[in-house]
Structures are given as C-alpha cells and as structure tokens.
Amino acid sequence: MREVLAAAHDWHLRRIPFGLATVVASSAGSITGPGDLLAVDPTGDVRGGIPAGCVESAVLDAAAETLRTGRARLARYPVGDDGPWPARPGCAGIIEVLLRRVTADHLTARSLAALAGPDPVAVATVVGGPAPFAAELILGRDRTEGTLGAADLDGWAADQAAELPAGAAVRRYGHRPGVRVLFQVAPAAPQMLLFGATAVAAALARIGADLGYRVVVCDPRPAFATVARMPDAHEVHRAWPHRMLAATPVTPDTVLCLLGHDPRYEIPLLRAALTTPAGYLAVLGSRATHEARLAHLRADGVPEAQLARLRAPAGLDLGGRRPVETALAIAAEVVAWRHGGTGRPLSGLTGPIHAARSSDLPAAAAR
Amino acid sequence: MREVLAAAHDWHLRRIPFGLATVVASSAGSITGPGDLLAVDPTGDVRGGIPAGCVESAVLDAAAETLRTGRARLARYPVGDDGPWPARPGCAGIIEVLLRRVTADHLTARSLAALAGPDPVAVATVVGGPAPFAAELILGRDRTEGTLGAADLDGWAADQAAELPAGAAVRRYGHRPGVRVLFQVAPAAPQMLLFGATAVAAALARIGADLGYRVVVCDPRPAFATVARMPDAHEVHRAWPHRMLAATPVTPDTVLCLLGHDPRYEIPLLRAALTTPAGYLAVLGSRATHEARLAHLRADGVPEAQLARLRAPAGLDLGGRRPVETALAIAAEVVAWRHGGTGRPLSGLTGPIHAARSSDLPAAAAR
C-alpha cells in the first residue's frame, strides 16, 4: 500500500496520469479485500497489486484501459466455479474493483496523498446507487474537500468516518437502492520511540517505518544521534531520553524501546516510560542486567504492576544476534502484540490464518 | 555491519580516510564480540557501533584519534568493577579493539569491500605477537592479497580460514608468545528465491537483502517482473518459475518461497523445488488451497517425505495481514529456522538469549 501511495505521489509530482484499481469488496476469502490498490502508468509501470493471482492481470488490463478512456467504472471479477479462472478451493467468489484515471489535478491524487500522510484522514467514494459515481469526499482533521453530491450524504459520510475503524469498508446510505460508499480510513500514524541510536535502532527504524510507524530516535550522544546513522527515522533527537519523553505525547498505540546500554539515562527513562500508556514497552540487555534494573526500580518505589509491563528482553526468540536480526525479532513481537499473534509457525497451527478482515486492520492500515 | 561496510565503501569511492575500530575479543558477555565495527570520518560522521554503551563513546574517541595520528593500535576497555564505567551485572570484562586509519589505497579498504561482496572471503589480520602489527591477508576464492609478513604464517592463515565457520575469531600461531591473528570469515551470500512478483515479495526482498541474502525474484508476467516494483532485489527474472529454478544452483542455505497465486506454474514449480536441497521451502495461500495443492502433488506421485518439507502457510503467526506484515512473518520464520529459535516472546522464556557467539553466526554474518 505504502509503495503504491509513494509511486502515486511521485507520478503526481511529475504530472503523470495513471490508472488506479481499488478493491471495493471481495467474497473470495482473505486473499484480497477493500482498499487494496494497483496502479499503472502510461508506460505500463505497475505498482501495488491485487493479491489474487487469478485476476491480477485482468485488473491490470482494465486499469490500463481506464487510463486510456478516462471512464471510471466498477468491475466485477468472478473467481472459482463461475468465472474464467481455474476453480480452486479457498479462491471462489467475486472481487469488485473500482477503476479510475487519476490526473495531477484530480481529487483522487490529493486523497492518496492524504492517506499516505501522517495525519488522520478518511476518504469516502461513491461506488454505486443514486449519487455521482466515483464522487469523493476527503475528511481530514481540520478540513474537508470534495463532495459526494448532496449535503445530507456528506454529513452521513462524516459521521460514518468518525465511527469506522482503520482500514477500508463499504457502507450503504438510504434504502432501495441506497448509495454505496467506499470508506478508506487512516488514523494518525502510531509512534515508535527508540532510545539509543544504535545499529539495532537503525535497522528497527527501517522496518518500523515500513510497518507504518512514525519513528523517532533519541540519544544524548552528539556523534550517534545523527540522521546519517538513522536514515529511515522520521525524527532524530539529540537529547536526554527522559526529558525528550516528557515532551512527547504517548498513546496506547505507542511502541517504546530502550535499545541503548547507557546507565546515565536508563533508570530515569524507564521510570518515566512506565507511567505512560505506551502499549508496547521493551528493553534490551541480558537477563542479569534486567534483574539489576528491576532491583533499582523497585528500590525507587516503582510498583510491581508497572514493572510487569516491561518486555525484557525485547523481541521474539528467533535466535539471531546481529543488529538486523534483533530488530526483526522486536518488529515481529510488535506485530504480534498488535494482532494477537502467538509467534509460533503458522504451518504448525490450525484454524484461520487471519482474523476477520474488518477488525484486524492495524492502526496504520492504509499507509 | 552491512551499514558500516556500505559507508566504508562510499568513503573509499570518495577517497575520504576514516578511523576504523574492530572488536577483536570480548569477555564482557554477548553484548559485543569479534568483528563488530565502528567507523568515523573526519567530520565526525559515525557508522556502525560497539554495542556496549559503557565503552562506545571511548572507542569513538580512540578511532577519531587514530584517524588523526595514523597509528594502528590495540586498545583494551575494562568494563565493570575494574574499569572507569559503572559496574553492572552482565557487563563486566574486557573488550579488545583494533584501531586503524583506513585510506583509499589501504589494503583494509579492499578487505572491507571484499567482506561486503557476494563472494566468499576471509581476512586475516595480525593483532599481536612477533609479526607486523595490523598486517593483513585477504583470502578470496581465486586470489590472495597482502601478507602477514612470512610465508609460513600466510600458509597457516589460509588453512585456518578454510576451516573456520562464518563470523570472526582470534587464533594463535606458534608458541611463547605466538602471533595472534583476527579472522573475519564471510561465506558466499545465501540465496532467497521469491516466486511471484507480489507486494509481499517486494517487502520480503527488502528485509531479505538486509538480512544478507542475495534476493532473486521471478515471475512470468512482464508487467510485474520489473526492477521498479522490486527495487531491493538483486535480480528480477521474467521467466516461468520452474524453468528459472532448473537453471539456478540451490544449496541447503537457500530460502525458496512461493508468493504468487498463479495456478499456471505453481505445481511444476513445487515439483521441481521439492527435489532441491533448499533448506527453507514455503508457500502462501489458505489452508484449503494448500490441501488442494497437496492432493495434486500426491496424485502426481510426489512422496510424502518431500511434501512434509513444505511450510504452509509460510511465516510465524504474527496475526497481521498487510504485505509488509506477511513479509515480516516469513523473514522471522527464516531467521528462526537458521538459528533454531522458537518464535515465542523472549520475555516469557528463561536461559541464554543467544547461543555461544562462535557457533551461532549465520552464513551471512559479515555482511
């Protein structure tokens, strides 16, 4: 998704029009779902994809055709017994795709930019019923842009957007036949706060940014707290960690990791961190180091309930020890924390691979 | 490591000298060990790090000083009770660091480039005893470069390098006092073969390259098998996967993933893949899809022992469903496969976090 949005932004800046396919609905299992994007430029350069091999090429052809004709439409791809593609268990149903041409002055170019940005936003798009087809409404924190064609419909869309979880979903307004509206909802990017500008932090910043986090790295050492060392972080602070944390808003979505080994700030930082609502709070270091840390915090009067929140050592047991492997182990634990995963191999488990689509989208789903 | 090597290569190309600190030995727990690197350029730009917070700044100062003076030396940093840094459990011992100035025409610049490259190489460096201090010998597949100062020592080093596992270690030649030699051994980069140029493949290519894999993506669809879609892959092939696989050397280090959902090549590819020695062999898709796949392969006469090698669905159970999350789940399973990790949270386990340093280094440790 991020890759499509980045490409779209690049094409937008270069004023290159492109064809955009947006999945509106799918009854073909969890393979694809609302909000999945595929984009193609006039040279045939494709970004994103509809992760359903049997229809992806057909969607690409349709997106390229829409780029030529400019005619927005809703296409339906039957897969399985009813369609032209081989019937396969787990891949039978209908995929509905909205096809549009996006030009530099098109509202969709701005809605894609908004969905890619750090601020919360919702985009409502008419995909059927008695309203202008493909009409769009961008609902930002401070302003709205566009219209679905009628004030009551816009008001309803704003109410829906405020209530919908992150991700994409279709809602219907009115009765017989009603207007069908696709909602793409992107909340504010959650924060990943990394203390200690180490090699692990550099690797974790890269994966965290790919996961949709706004990554902030903080270290008091001037030589280490540099953008050159942390090229994928959104912010690099040269500051005392506990002071920087005191000036940073923390929410239950926040990921906070202590990756340094610097006793000069460790205890003050942890004491402050443990009073925040950060949802994932982890520290590196050996088990002996952690025992000493806990003893220190206990002596300072930190309650056991707070201490129990610390994940130590951070990460899943993957067994690697290089910085990139440690970062991967932490990122994997973060994803498992967000989605309730066990960390065990999927091949050794039974039951559904994913939770229901509408509820398991992470906070930064649309990024 | 990779980041230091990339920075060193960049400085080398721009003919910028830099100070290089290489950990030779450590008795301070698993926090740092032989082969860890820190580099600093004349502007104070630091790359890499000695992941031992208590000494990192001191090592940086020493590297910067060596850059000024040009005098190679071995520095010893006592940590814990005996040293100037605070005593902490799990962080007591001695860290030995080789400090050198590296200029564009310096042999070390070429040895760093060799360690960063895809081919197997070993670098031997004198760190003590009756031989020229910091003398280097690069032992490549087809050629050697440099000398440790004597033919018998060079011959011994070549024998050692052929036997040492990937990673870094110190060996002693001769008796009383003997020559101490640091060996940095990098095998050929293992391969990650990704079939299906999907969004999951793009995300996995990025993480796989960071993990030290040589990543190859293959898809028969011209619009999808493009470098633009797979910017982090080392090779992108537009070919029928089973044909491309037939022309590719596969070893027990090889990671092979089927990420597409294209029935046109899936069965021929899996039949071929199951006869290779690939160590990690995984497929995506629902459990129902996999049952149908197994039924097809069984009907084709593929033995159960081969079918049991397939990890399906690929990845650890992290619970996410976005392409980047699926890629992360697969990468985490790959690391756990290489190192014997369980995937369970480290904070819920007991015992050592890492296996012994010398044996747990992955095949691409030095990249």
UniProtKB/TrEMBL annotation, chains A, B:
Domain XdhC Rossmann, first and last residues per copy: 192-334
Organism whose genome encodes this protein: Micromonospora viridifaciens
Record protein name field: Xanthine dehydrogenase accessory factor
Alphabetized Pfam families for the sequence: XdhC_C, XdhC_CoxI
Cited InterPro entries: MoCofactor_Util/Proc (IPR052698), XdhC_CoxI (IPR003777), XdhC_Rossmann_dom (IPR027051)
XdhC- CoxI domain sequence ranges: 12-77
